[in-house]
TrEMBL record:
InterPro entries: TauD-like_sf, TauD/TfdA-like, TfdA_dioxygenase. One of its GO terms (molecular function) is 2-oxoglutarate-dependent dioxygenase activity. Belongs to the TfdA dioxygenase family. This is Putative taurine catabolism dioxygenase. Keywords: Dioxygenase, Iron, Metal-binding, Oxidoreductase. It comes from the Bacteria. Residues 33-282 form the TauD/TfdA-like domain. It comes from Bernardetia litoralis (strain ATCC 23117 / DSM 6794 / NBRC 15988 / NCIMB 1366 / Fx l1 / Sio-4) (Flexibacter litoralis). PANTHER family: (3R)-3-[(CARBOXYMETHYL)AMINO]FATTY ACID OXYGENASE_DECARBOXYLASE, DIOXYGENASE RV0097-RELATED.
Length: 287
C-alpha cells in the first residue's frame, strides 16, 4: 500500500527497568503521523499493523480525552467498564477512559504504587468474540526512570513450545473468573462480568495464527484442580517470559501505544518509585 506514513520496522534500541535488561523484541513505530487527521487509507494501514505486529507505537500525539475516545471508536465499539474496574478514574464524563496513574484525584501521590505489575491480557474476562480487544494507552506524564511497559508476543510463545506441551494444551480451556483478577480487587460483585472460557491454544480471529492465551496466572484451567492448573499455568508463563518474546517500551510524553490483547500479554515493569506517572487507556471491541 502506498501511503505517506513513515514507519520504523527494525529493532529499536530500548532498555527496560533494571530487572528486565534484555527485552528487545521489535515494535513497529509510526512517525510523522497525526491520528486526528488520517485518511481512511492511512488509518487502514495502522489498523492492519496492530494484529500483524501485536503492538505498535505512534509518536508525538497531542490528544484530549475527546480525541482519544474518537480515535478509539475507529477500531470498533469502545469498552465501557464499571467504576470499580477503572482504578482511580475520576473523569465520570468519559466512561470509555481508564486513568492509569499513581496520582490520586486529590493530586496526592499514591506512595509505592505497583499496579498491573504482572503479565495479563486485557479483556480476557469477556467471552469470545468479545475478548478481541485493542487497547490504546496514551502517555501524558512519564517518570524520569522506570515505568516501562512490557509486551509478550503470544504467537512466538506458542510456536516455541515443545510438541509435548502443545499436545498437552491442545484441548484445554482456561477458565477466567473476574473475581480472581488482581486489578479488580475491591470491585463490587454486580460490577463483575460472568466467567469466561477460552482455548489455551487460541486461534487468532483475524490472522488465523495460534497464540498461547490464558489471561494471567490467576486463572484456572477447566477440568484440572486448582493446584494442577497453577502448575501448568506457571509452566506456560515461564515460556511467555523468555527474553526473545518480549518488547519493553520506554515511554516518552505523548506516546500512543496500541496493542492486540489476543496476540500479546503486557505488564507494568515498575521501577519508577514515587515519581508521578499519568496515562490514559481506552479500548475497543474490534470490528
Amino acid at each position: 500500500m502506498n501511503t505517506n506514513l513513515e514507519t520504523t520496522k527494525e529493532r529499536p534500541t530500548v532498555k527496560s527497568s533494571e530487572a528486565f535488561p534484555n527485552y528487545t523484541l521489535p515494535c513497529r513505530i509510526f512517525e510523522n503521523v497525526d491520528v486526528k487527521n488520517l485518511t481512511q487509507e492511512e488509518f487502514e494501514e495502522i489498523r492492519k499493523a496492530v494484529p500483524q505486529n501485536g503492538v505498535i507505537l505512534i509518536k508525538n500525539q497531542h490528544l484530549s480525552l475527546d480525541e482519544l475516545v474518537a480515535w478509539t471508536k475507529r477500531f470498533g465499539e469502545p469498552v465501557e467498564l464499571a467504576d470499580g474496574l477503572r482504578f482511580n478514574n475520576f473523569h465520570k464524563e468519559y466512561p470509555e477512559v481508564t486513568r492509569i496513574s499513581n496520582i490520586l484525584p486529590s493530586g496526592e501521590l499514591l506512595q509505592n504504587y505497583s499496579g498491573a505489575e504482572y503479565w495479563h491480557s486485557d479483556g480476557d474476562f469477556w467471552q469470545a468474540p468479545k475478548n478481541y480487544v485493542f487497547s490504546c494507552l496514551y502517555a501524558e506524564k512519564v517518570p524520569p526512570k522506570g515505568g516501562e511497559t512490557g509486551f509478550a508476543d503470544l504467537r512466538l510463545a506458542y510456536n516455541g513450545l515443545k510438541q509435548e506441551l502443545k499436545d498437552k494444551i491442545k484441548n484445554l480451556r482456561v477458565w477466567v473468573s473476574p473475581k480472581n483478577i488482581p486489578d479488580f480487587e475491591g470491585a463490587k460483585d454486580d460490577e463483575l462480568p460472568p466467567d469466561a472460557y477460552h482455548n489455551i491454544a487460541y486461534l487468532h480471529p483475524e490472522t488465523q495464527l495460534l497464540c498461547l492465551y490464558f489471561g494471567c496466572t490467576a486463572s484456572d484451567i477447566e477440568g484440572l484442580s486448582r493446584e494442577d492448573g497453577q502448575i501448568l499455568l506457571k509452566e506456560l508463563m515461564a515460556e511467555v517470559e523468555k527474553d526473545e518474546y518480549i518488547y519493553a517500551h520506554k515511554w516518552s510524553p505523548n506516546d500512543l501505544l496500541i496493542w492486540d490483547n489476543t496476540s500479546t500479554m503486557h505488564r507494568s515493569l515498575g521501577g519508577y518509585g514515587n515519581y508521578p506517572r499519568l496515562m490514559y487507556r481506552t479500548q475497543a471491541y474490534v470490528k
